[in-house]
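Rotation project, supervised by the postdoc (A.L.). Task for the rotation student: set up a whole-complex structure prediction and record inputs and outputs verbatim in this book. Inputs entered:
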Amino acid sequence: MKLLLILPIILPLTTAAVGLLCWRSIRAQQVIGLLGAGGLLAAAGSLLHGVWQNGPMALQLGNWPAPFGITLAADLFSAIMVVLAALMGFTVALYSLATVDPRRVRYGYFCFYHFLLMGVCGVFLTGDLFNMYVWFEVMLMASFVLMALGGEKEQLEGAIKYVTLNLISSAVFLTGLGILYGMSGTLNMAHLATVLPQSEHPFMVTTVAMLFLVAFGIKSAVFPLFFWLPASYHTPPVAVSAIFAGLLTKVGVYSLMRVFTLLFMGDVAYTHTLILIIAGFTMVTGVLGAAAQGEFRRILSFHIISQVGYMIMGLGLFTPLALTGSVFYIMHHIVVKTNLFLVSGVARLLGGSYRLERLGGLSLSAPGLSLLFAVSAFSLAGIPPLSGFWAKLILIIASFKDASYLIAATALLVSLLTLFSMTKIWAAVFWGEPAVAADPQPLSGRRRAALYVPIILLALITVTIGLGTGPILTLAERTADQLIDPRAYIRAVLGSVQ
Amino acid sequence: MELVAAIVVGGLFGAAVYLLLWRTPVKLIIGLVLLSNAINLLIFLAAGLTRGKPPIIPEGSLRAAQAVADPLPQALILTAIVISFGVLAFTLVLFSRTFKTLAATHLDEMKTTDS
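Outputs recorded:
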């Protein structure tokens, strides 16, 4: 049973290793890449099932009792994130079959793809802060390579910005970690949660909290630390953009939610209010940035920023309902945002460009794609009954209950502006005259399937979350309860030591 | 001893940030190198400096007889050194490749992906 905790790390590692062994055959790498992602999805599903049934689980690596060894731990929040990572890993791997060129596959695209998934799952599952830093580096290293793989001019330029700022973010994280260890003598998160409230220097704890806020803030692209994201996410192949957009900033959001619900609870009035203010600014700047763009993927990139604002808004309000909203929002957002990037890739294949002014008339030539885009875009903007509507509704109700009317108004306004951006894409890409330079390459049946199956799958999930909100809401509520009251998590990790 | 070490760490951080703010790639990389070294020393310092007391437990006993140096920060630093070495090696190659491809010498010349 506890083996389930390590499977989401071992499976991608094995897949990547086997893939490296068959580097000569492109076909073999594609098959292994897809099979590995499928296996990861199955493992993640059973992990979530296990955590749902039995509560938080922990695995002491090497049998060293916590807090002395490295612990892997999963509560519902971790398990949900692993499932989402695996789901995106599987759908985007399928999509990669049709969009990533053989040269990139030969240079190990699928191997680095699985190293990336390993790093992401590692961050979600670790119960130790230093171990989290190591997983962050695994993930970053793989993402650096994926970002630069292919060596196109734009890609390299984007990669420099991405690499530099992420290195600085890791440096800040490590600084905070060092000081935290000096103060408390432990890096096990559950142990820290019991030690930090008794700290002799509460103001130092808050100082370290700010270091963590900056470090994870850069990674999750919040205001004013987001500039690397729109400068780099539109440069690599679209499958890479899609998996980055779905997972990487959310790893930052996960870490923020983890440390600001478990560790830094000493001065909630200060830290969480600051997070709420940042959330407001993040939403507004992201959506305004998007309004000024004329490139499909850059518009979507700016919307990632704006959406991250919603996620940490729930953290800033810090009530059970608000956290439920955040968790719900993360689930909805990962699915929808990845899907929009996948759609942009198909639009590029059919219309020949990502520039809005060069695209047009796709609703005539590809009505199915238009429908799929509409589902995701309306969900992103929060039109009922799609998943985004419920996510935003919960957050706004939570802010009203907390008497935070300003943030509620901001969230509503930003929602409206999101709709404006989505309509802009719709009008430019799907309506209007067919683009002049459009010279669609004929797609073979199998390639068409690899392009459309992931998009249809993710669109169906969006609709399902929207129509069958009940079970998902229950899941999000229980997750929020575990975050607000982490005693079960701490007990699972520390066991009898406590 | 702690005071001297703290001043050294502060100086390294300052130098690193100063270099990062320049717009030339070489200074940026040197800044990143200094930054990672500054942090390694910081971890060492924050965990407490203990001189001449190796963490060796006598045979047959379960804990050390007297206060000894904490071995964990050294393990953390060792890991951090290895990681930063690998990452910096990658960064160096990336920068050299990029500036060859773009034929640029200055970070201000890299603005095409910003708009």
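Student's summary: Residues 385 and 467 of chain A are 6 Å apart (CA to CA).
Supervisor addendum: The first helix of chain A runs from residue 7 to 21.
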